[in-house]
Write a structure and sequence with these properties.
Elements (H helix, E strand, L loop, with lengths): L18 E7 L7 E6 H15 L6 E4 L7 H11 L3 E4 L8 H10 L4 E4 L1 H14 L9 E4 L8
Parallel strand pairs: 3-4, 5-6
Antiparallel strand pairs: 1-2
C-alpha cells in the first residue's frame, strides 16, 4: 500500500517552556533524578551571563568544561550570544597549570571560567613559576569561594 505524504508545512509547536536539556542530579535523597531545563531559562540565564561578564565580539573564551557538564552551557552560549570567539580546550581532560598559561597566551584568551580547585592549581603554578597573568586576560570566573591556606 502506498501512502501519500502531506505537502503542508508542519505546525510549529515549540515554545519557551519546552525542554532544552536535562540535568541529572543526585538530589537530596541521593537518588539520581533528571531536571528539565526549559529554553526560556537557558536563554535568560545566558543573556544575563553575557551581560554580567561584559562579553563582546572582541573576547576569546575558553571552553574547559566537559560537554556532559552543565557548566559548558555557561561557557558556550554567552560567548556565542556576544559574538565572541569560543576556544576549545586541548584533547586532554584538564591541561596542567603551565599548559593553561601557554594556551591562554597563545589564544589571547580574555575570559576564563575555572572550577575553584582548578583555579587554585593554576594560581599556584603562576606563583611558583614567576609567570604573570596572560596579557589579554581581563576576567577569571570561578565556581565556589576560593580560599588560601598560605
Amino acid at each position: 500500500m502506498i501512502r501519500s505524504r502531506s505537502t503542508a508545512s508542519p505546525v510549529n509547536v515549540l515554545c519557551p517552556e519546552n525542554a532544552a536539556y536535562v540535568v541529572y542530579t543526585s538530589g537530596s535523597t541521593g537518588r539520581s533524578k533528571g531536571i528539565l531545563v526549559p529554553h526560556r531559562a537557558v536563554v535568560n540565564h545566558n543573556l544575563g551571563m553575557a551581560a554580567l561578564f561584559g562579553l563582546t565580539g572582541r573576547d576569546s573564551v575558553l571552553r574547559l568544561a566537559s560537554l556532559s557538564f552543565d557548566a559548558a552551557v555557561e561557557e558556550i552560549f554567552p560567548t556565542w550570544l556576544a559574538g565572541a570567539r569560543l576556544v576549545l580546550r586541548p584533547g586532554r581532560l584538564s591541561p596542567s597549570g603551565a599548559e593553561l598559561a601557554d594556551l591562554a597566551e597563545a589564544q589571547a584568551l580574555t575570559v576564563l571560567d575555572l572550577p575553584t580547585a582548578y583555579w587554585h592549581t593554576w594560581v599556584d603554578h603562576l606563583a611558583c613559576s614567576g609567570r604573570s597573568l596572560p596579557a589579554a586576560l581581563r576576567l577569571v570566573v570561578r565556581g565556589e569561594k576560593a580560599s588560601r591556606t598560605c
